[in-house]
Amino acid sequence: xxxxxxxxxQFTEExxxxxxxxxxxxxxxxxxxxxxxxxxxxxxxxARIILERFTNTSIIRRKVKATINNSLGDILLPYCPYVSGLxxxxxxxxxxxxxxxxxVEFVNLxxxxxxxxxxxxxxxYTSSNLPNVFKDALKQxxxxxxxxxxxxxxxxxxxxxxxxxxxxxxx
Length: 171
Description:
By secondary structure, the protein is of the alpha+beta class.
């Protein structure tokens, strides 16, 4: 049996603006024209997704819906930072009203020790409150992916991994 696990995560209502501006992408990659900018922006989005999965953190603002097992209690909600609007439902779809949590930015669900719960909430950073360390790691990952595009499968680059390791939330 699995205890305190995240079974599934879905994202909706994602912001359409990426954390790195067009100028930041263009300057960081030293692009001399706008010709490659659209491709570079897609690569920046992929870099963000890779880093979000590594850290279990929402780098952009979005609505998170997760199916979790909270059998042991105190499970960390995935893809925080938590913003607002926590709704918890049991396996039959009933909304639970006596929800207890702790933590401010990275919130743990301390009540309802059940095998199957659904949680929904707003999470993520905005461009104005994203810590600089995440922007640095995004640039590091972007540069690596840009230089190695077309090569074998690209995972997280070591320097970005080292930069974000202190901020990783293991589920």
